[in-house]
Amino acid sequence: MAPTDPSEPTLISRTPRKNRRRIVLALVGAAAALALTTWYVVVPYPWTLGTRDPERTALMEQRLREASDEGVSLDIRQTWVPLDEISPALVRAVLVAEDYRFRQHRGVDWVSLAEEVHWTGDESFSWTSASDLGALSDAVGYVWANRSVMRGRSTLTQQLAKNLYFGTERTLFRKGLEFLVAGRLERRLGKDRILELYLNVAEWGPGVFGAEAAARAYFGRSASSLTLEQSAALAATLPQPLSSNPSRNPGRMLWRKNLILERLDPSPEIPPAPMPLPEPTIAPEFEAPDYSPSQ
To answer: Which pTM was predicted?
Structure first.
């Protein structure tokens, strides 16, 4: 094959100007179509969640696969109930335990997140501020160095996005998708609907999903009749649902339950909390999940 003469015009330069413009427009259109496809397909959009209750979540499917890989069967226990049929005590306990700024944020609690990543910049970030850029570099470095132990300070909306679409995989990419979907959930749904969805799909034990199933499994009563102490016990075990039994084996989550009770108030309002509830400094010992129905 003869070498190309650099003096010869290339194919693009030999292409008429009008055709070159068409090629560029086609490439731009293809890139835009790819971006839109990624935005609306790869990143889920809650088109129907305003009126339709999800039948299965990504987390449920994950638990079914895990049980199958272990050669055991897993029955998904879930009974959907509207928010007004869930004890207000449980609603308050979950908010105090998991997301006490729920009513103030729009999907991501930037205040808690700033605390998590040791943010030292201004409250209002600016790309033209040298100090903010330095603080951003420090925060990214901190996250990367501690990526295996970062909690992320996930809001209820982010946890709902994880349960619905992503499962428990912990990667920065998945966390980014979770941020995007949380924003979409907040724009599409009201706070009460997000609460209703969360409380009906949250994992509370092997095969136990939602407040009604958890109340029946652990306390033999409906979610609407849960007491304050029972509600605090359920809220306390949300971080470790497979290794804590709220009714008979709370394990290291017992101290968390007591702290939730201290922060709850008999009034219907959610009391202010000075900071999020801390996670255990030592992770609870792992116990193989018991896939048999709770007695």
So the answer is: 0.71
